[in-house]
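Worked problem 6 (solution included).
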Amino acid sequence: MAALGVLVAPRLAAASVLAPLPSRLRLLPPSRQALSPRAALHCSSPRPGARVAVVLSGCGVYDGTEIHEASAILVHLSRGGADVQIFAPDTSQMHVVDHTKGQPSEGDTRNVLTESARIARGKIADLAQLRAADHDAAIFPGGFGAAKNLLCCIAPVLAARVLHGVEVTVGHEQEEGGKWPYPGTAEAIRALGAKHCVKDVTEVHVDQKNKVVTTPAFMCETALHHIHDGIGAMVRKVLELARK
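Solution. The predicted structure is:
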């Protein structure tokens, strides 16, 4: 599933149940609030870096967040010296999927925040507590949980839903022998009034006007290190924009 990074601004209201959405760069509040001890991750830089919210939707690609994408995002944010807070909605999952079978597990129920805490190692906060004024950027890892538990869709489609004319990428627009198994997503993005930009899995697209950065990630069937490299490029670009 594709990953989405956005730059947020304090004057924005939440445009969906997910989180405040992207607008202009440069966020300079009068004072910096202390990070919640349950939400804040260790920052690898001795000096304060960009403040980034990572929004999760559970734990597992079929009913939550794609774990490899989330882990890669957190690794690259740590390397980039970002101050990271992780959020997820305190709500029940749409359903629970047995990942050995790819089928729903009948009678099983799980909480999105509780499941996301597995990825966050317990350092997580309710999405309802996320405020745009507290963050320079927000990143949404992919996974079917984005569609099932955050009431949106593949992460770049989120931007397409709320920003008319936004430019995003989910990779290529043809299946190419199974390498790109979700070619219809690009057409869905265009149907929402957005522009789809063809990119390879290790590349990113930057919409400079809307300050939205996207990368294909697991929209491509390829080796894991290529996914990791593409996410790294996205995170670096998000941090670069956040520092301007």
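Discussion: Residues 224-242 form the longest helix (19 residues).
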